[in-house]
Each structure stands twice: as structure tokens, then as C-alpha cells.
Amino acid sequence: MSFANLARLAREPALRMLLVNAGDAESLTWSGLVQPLRRAQRAHPGFTLDVRTLEAAAREPGDGWHVALLVADEQQPAPQADLLHAALERCRGAQYWGGVGAAVLWLAEQGLAAGVRIALPWALYADTEEIAERAILTPHLFELDGRVLSCCGGAASIDFALTLIEHLLGGGTSAVVKEALCIDRVRGAEERQRVALQARFGALQPKLSEAVTLMEANIEEPLSTDDIAQLVGLSRRQLERLFKQYLGSLPSRYYLELRLQRARQLLLETNHSIVQVGLMCGFSSGSHFSTAFGALFGNTPREERQRKLAGA
């Protein structure tokens, strides 16, 4: 779903947002999110930012938020189950809700991201064996799918916050905040965590990073697993072992999901026909595209396109 759908909240006379800090207040993930939003609150009198600790969110009453986010740095261990459950339930009461950083993993582990695209930090992909079959893991910086917002955290938190400000509070407030923070360019949701991937595997597993980069660069004309293995200088079996160990998937499956995620993005965010989208993502057969898409997302490309039209 496009972030432009958030713009309908801009008509609210008093827009309220809840941020729940479940991690280190000094982390880049938290500061990158809360500082732009605090500046936005000062610049926009109709916007209220409510900041709470995990314990306060879980135990203190409150509702009526339009957006609510649980935030934690990717290195933060999961909190006590009762606190986490209560805080997530508080966030879910908002019109749009979700997580940033490690909190994205936590909400997925709670079964709250079934069939939903989530932007999980690459550093946490090793912990996704149980959730990968339910949630849809994307390599993007942040996502909005239905009511669920997610951001990989770290430096992307700044881009995420500024994107929220742009759509919720308008270009004027966004310009004020960007000028105050000396930010010239805001990365879009569709940009990938490639730097994070290279940071995680670049030194230890450069072949894996190289293989994923090849896949990302060859969406329209997919390479075979044998071709990728040859290009990165590994045997097919070695490549499959790397993908299984570090990404929890076979190369062919990872590549297919990468192409289908791209197809879903194109269906929701462009006006290309369904046939064109299939071809742009390497599917020469319309029936194969529809079958593979339905197996991953639970609906057909046509139904996905109807989601866009309904949102519009």
C-alpha cells in the first residue's frame, strides 16, 4: 500500500501519534524517529506526539491515537511477554500501527503480521525461521501494508519519520523539519537495505551478498541458480547451503519471492497492466505469475490491483 493513503489522516483536526520506546533512548533507531517528530510537533499545532516507555504503554490508560509505533533497536532483547503483549495491544488500537527495528520481529513472532509485508532489519533475519512462512519479509527500508507500518530501524528511522511527516502533516511541516535537521534527501520506502546486507555478510559471506545483489539486478530476466552460483564462484550446493544457513531459504525460493514482492509493489504503486507487471518481474506465463503470486500472498494479482483501486 502506498504511504499516500496516510494523507486521509491529514484531514483530522487533531492528529495524535504514540511512540513506545522499548529499547535504548540513545540508540540511532529511537533518536532518528523521535527527533524529527518532536520538531514536527513544534511546527504543526494540530499534531500531538505522545512518548511512553514500554511499561507506561502497557499499564497506563490511553486511546484515540491515529498512529502508534513500538520502537526498539535491533540489538534489544525481547521484553517480558506480558508487557510486550499489553503494549502491542495498546498500539493496535490506533488506525495505523506497527513496529520499528527489533519491534518488527516481536510483532511478527506474536502472529500479528500474517500475510503482511514487513521491513525487518537484515541483522534479525537469522531469527525468522518460524515467522517466514507467515509474514512477508521485504528488503525495503520501511513498509505500509494495510494498517501495519514497519521500519528496519537504524538510519532508516529518519527517512521513515520524514515520510510520515510528509504524508500526515504536509510538505510545509516536512520542509521545516528537513531544514532544521539539514536533510536534503529522504530515501523512499522502496529503497533496499543493501548496505545493511553487505554490512552483515560483506566481510564474512561476500559470496552471499554478491548473489543477492545479482538477483536484485536481474528481476526482469531472472538468472538460474546454476548461473548465479557460477557468477559468484561457488557450486550450486555451496550456494544453497549459504542461503539456507543465513537467509532460511533456498536461492530459487528467495529469488521467486523477491520477484513477487517487486510485482506486488508495482501492482499497488503503478498503473502498469497485470500482464506488463508479470513480464517486468520475469514471468512469461500469466498463469504461472498468478499461481505463484496467489501461493505467496493469498490473493491473485487482479485482487491485489483492486486493493489499490479501493484505497484510491
UniProtKB/TrEMBL annotation:
The keyword DNA-binding appears for this protein: yes
Keyword field: DNA-binding, Transcription, Transcription regulation
Gene Ontology MF terms: DNA-binding transcription factor activity; sequence-specific DNA binding
UniProt keyword annotation of Transcription present: yes
Transmembrane segments: none
Pfam families the UniProt entry points to: HTH_18 (PF12833)
HTH araC/xylS-type domain mapped to chain residues: 209-307
Protein name: Helix-turn-helix domain-containing protein
Species of origin: Pseudoduganella flava
